[in-house]
Amino acid sequence: MSKFLKLVSFLLVGFSIQAQDAAKAKSLLDEVSTKVKTYENIVIDFKYALNNPTENINQESKGNVTLKGNLYNLNFMGVTKIFDGKKVYTIVPEDEEISISKFDDKDESAVTPSKMLTFFNSGYKYSWDILQDIKGRKIQYIKLIPISSKDQRKEILLGIDVQTKNIYNLIETGKNGTRTTLTVNSFKTNQPLSDNHFTFTESKYPNYYINRLD
At residue 105, does pLDDT exceed 90? Predict the structure, then answer.
């Protein structure tokens, strides 16, 4: 076999393996999306870590979020964010300030709470990555590469629990070297929630300054 034919054969095998890996990755992500849609609501406790060696930044914090469809109630770093389907309410007790703004649905790159379990459905190239044993759980990683060249993220690794098909963690690496990791500590579904869990009640904050951005 000539060198040229060997090279062509090698490239074809390589492309075939890549295509199979991408198909496997997409299939697993589809399973995750399908399962998420079966839940009435989801309550997540998580840990968030940010690392930037260049700037010598290492930060860790914890938070929790309740999701129901595209509605969310997020508590993170002392701030509460509520999305009622129309507007986002950002409540900052430390400053006694509340910002009210319309939801920006044009920002496709933002992994908002309501999209954190389904953001990967479009805008990315997929590939099958490593399988890790973490505390007795099999975590399969899928690598996501943003398609848009304007996206400031270099890649995202999405860790999925092989048994439950729930997301275990998300590792995001920026083009500037910043690495952020969101790890799910607790994942509960179909919890009893109050009727106003995703509702902002202004009367609860009589002394707060309200900044209406829209």
Answer: no
